[in-house]
Specification:
The complex is a heterodimer of chains A (292) and B (288). Chain A has 12 helices and 2 strands. Chain A is mainly α and 292 residues long. Chain A has one domain. Chain B has 11 helices and 2 strands, in the order H-H-H-H-E-E-H-H-H-H-H-H-H. The chains are: A mainly alpha (292), B mainly alpha (288). The interface between A and B is large, with 43 and 47 residues.
Chain lengths: 292, 288
């Protein structure tokens, strides 16, 4: 049972990541491969604030989201200068830079040692005090966040803002002619997506209670991208389905009994092959509406 | 102690590797018009083939070198034939091709890691001594000298190939307009297959050289690919000669940059240089 709860928490966290990446890739057509960087900034902000300055989880989460907003706005502005698909490569470069900062800025992040002993979230309003220390209560918290993010994504999709984004994705020049500043719209959605990813990062740090840079590599970004491509771009349901499938599928490998390094590499090989097969036979994913 | 000659030597060596990689990348980008991320992993294929053939099996080094270059070229050719060719025939967008090539990169590097573990390996043990030369106060090894020479030779060879041979003319024609090239009777499929083979082989060669100079690991592909792409954008994307200039500019910026800043920021320096170019000269040094 504990194991199932553990999987459900991971699925919720990755579903938040997938939903938030889908905002940028699916709705705005920004081919971003740097989501793990924002995930990492959120996780590290929460970890550092709560272990070193004893800041409450929920406050740390907000600060982390604000930091991520600044970082993603700046990088989004830079990425917007890239021509066409080179955005993807620029974002890969940004992910590598963030990772190398996490690894090398030892005074702040403790480098490869990682940050242990991150506390579980505690809630203290008026006289009600509650700590999400059991895994089941944490699952409920994660599901609440997932629901909020899902509703936010759905709201954005159905708002006029979302419609403009989709139109920009289809024909940027036409929308410019109509007087929409495509750059502003793209930057806004990129920043929103990054902030939501940092929320997932905060949850991840508080759940695992230990983080190190190895979680926030480019492979993680590719993994999240695979999830939304599998589920289908520009579909919130698809993003959740993709995250569920990609988290649960490799768990089956666990029962086959590979050594852990080989199992990890096998997963990577499967993701890679899956991307190729999807591009060849079903570029819109399982339930997606947008074909790249 | 004057460090400048050493920095210049280091820049020339790093620049040669970048130049070789950029040549390989530009070759397919100029004609196929999509970003082949799978090109990065060809470095690992080349390096690990030499590692396997010459170190594990104990075959002579020249055999390992040939096997490494041919195998990386062949894998690149296979990726084109079975993945990129059908996608291009279907008029898939650049993003689809890019993601498919990202899949190739991820899958192949994972397979290499399963076969050889993800540990860092070095090829320099295969050489009997690596002499150190000194020139104007700059020290460099025999391997590094040969990297520079290979870079120059490869450049001359490619320039000859593109200018003088029928294959080169076909390549240039495809780069200008694939449809028209087809109409005037160029077998574009065959030329493309050869181009991908050539590009993969160049990537493999670069990986082998990197393996002798520093070392190889399965995930080496992506960082080297990024460096090649940065150099290509700086030089003017798809422009083979511009790419060389971009490669050396990038190498000089990085090596002189880490003179004053800590070495961990090397990637950030490359990115910074790229941003400067994207802001003020997005078409690169030489326009295509």
């Amino acid at each position: 049972m504990e194991y199932l709860i553990h999987l459900a928490i991971l699925v919720s966290i990755y579903a938040i990541l997938a939903l938030s990446l889908n905002l940028a890739v699916g709705y705005a057509g920004i081919l971003s491969v740097t989501h793990a960087a924002f995930f990492g900034i959120g996780a590290y902000a929460t970890a550092i604030l709560s272990t070193r300055y004893d800041v409450n989880f929920f406050l740390a989460l907000v600060v982390g989201a604000a930091l991520t907003a600044v970082a993603s706005f700046l990088i989004g502005a830079v990425l917007s200068r890239f021509r066409g698909d080179f955005v993807a490569l620029g974002s890969v470069g940004f992910n590598m830079i963030v990772w190398s900062i996490l690894l090398n800025w030892q005074e702040l992040t403790r480098g490869p040692l990682g940050i242990p002993g991150i506390g579980r979230p505690e809630l203290g309003i008026w006289n009600i005090e509650y700590s999400f220390s059991s895994n089941f209560s944490f699952l409920l918290l994660a599901l609440c966040f997932l629901l909020l993010v899902y509703l936010a994504a759905r709201f954005i999709e159905r708002s006029s803002f979302g419609r403009v984004l989709k139109a920009i994705r289809e024909d940027e020049e036409a929308l410019e002619v109509f007087g929409y500043k495509a750059l502003h719209y793209k930057l806004a959605i990129f920043t929103i997506g990054a902030m939501l990813a940092s929320v997932a990062g905060a949850l991840f740090a508080a759940y695992i209670t230990f983080i190190d840079p190895s979680t926030f590599t480019i492979n993680e970004s590719i993994f999240i991208l695979s999830a939304i491509i599998l589920g289908g771009l520009a579909s919130n349901k698809g993003a959740v389905i993709g995250a569920v499938v990609l988290i649960l599928l490799p768990e089956l490998l666990r029962f086959v009994g590979f050594p852990s390094d080989i199992a990890a590499q096998t997963r990577q090989a499967v993701y890679g092959l899956m991307l190729i097969v999807l591009m060849l036979y079903r570029p819109q994913g399982l339930v997606g509406e947008y074909k790249l | 102690m004057d460090i400048v000659p050493q920095l210049i030597a280091n820049s020339l060596i790093a620049g040669s590797i970048y130049a070789i990689l950029t040549l390989g990348f530009n070759l397919t980008y100029a004609s196929a018009k999509f970003i082949d991320m799978g090109f990065g992993v060809m470095t690992a294929i080349g390096g690990y083939t030499v590692f396997y053939v010459s170190k594990t099996l104990g075959a002579p080094l020249w055999l390992g070198l040939i096997a490494g270059i041919l195998l990386s070229g062949f894998v690149s050719f296979l990726a084109y034939t079975f993945i990129y060719k059908p996608l291009r025939a279907r008029k898939s967008s650049g993003a689809v091709l890019l993601i498919a090539s990202l899949g190739t990169l991820t899958a192949v590097q994972a397979v290499i890691a399963i076969l050889f573990t993800s540990q860092f390996q070095t090829l320099s043990g295969l050489l009997h001594g690596n002499r150190v030369f000194e020139l104007f106060g700059a020290a460099f090894t025999a391997v590094q000298l040969s990297i520079f020479c290979v870079g120059v030779l490869l450049f001359l060879l490619l320039a000859f190939l593109l200018k003088k041979t029928l294959f080169g003319k076909a390549t240039v024609a495809i780069g200008d307009d694939e449809e028209v090239a087809k109409i005037v009777g160029i077998d574009t499929d065959r030329a493309m297959g050869r181009l991908f083979f050539l590009s993969g082989a160049i990537g493999g060669l670069a990986g082998i050289l990197i393996g002798f100079d520093t070392g190889i690991e399965p995930i080496m592909g992506l960082p080297w690919l990024l460096a090649a792409v940065v150099a290509a954008i700086i030089g003017g994307i798809g422009n083979i000669y511009g790419g060389i200039a971009g490669a050396f500019l990038l190498a000089f910026a990085e090596n002189f940059g880490i003179w004053k800043i800590a070495g961990e920021w090397k990637a950030a320096i490359a990115f910074g240089l790229l941003i400067i170019f994207l802001m003020w000269r997005p078409q690169g040094i030489f326009k295509r």
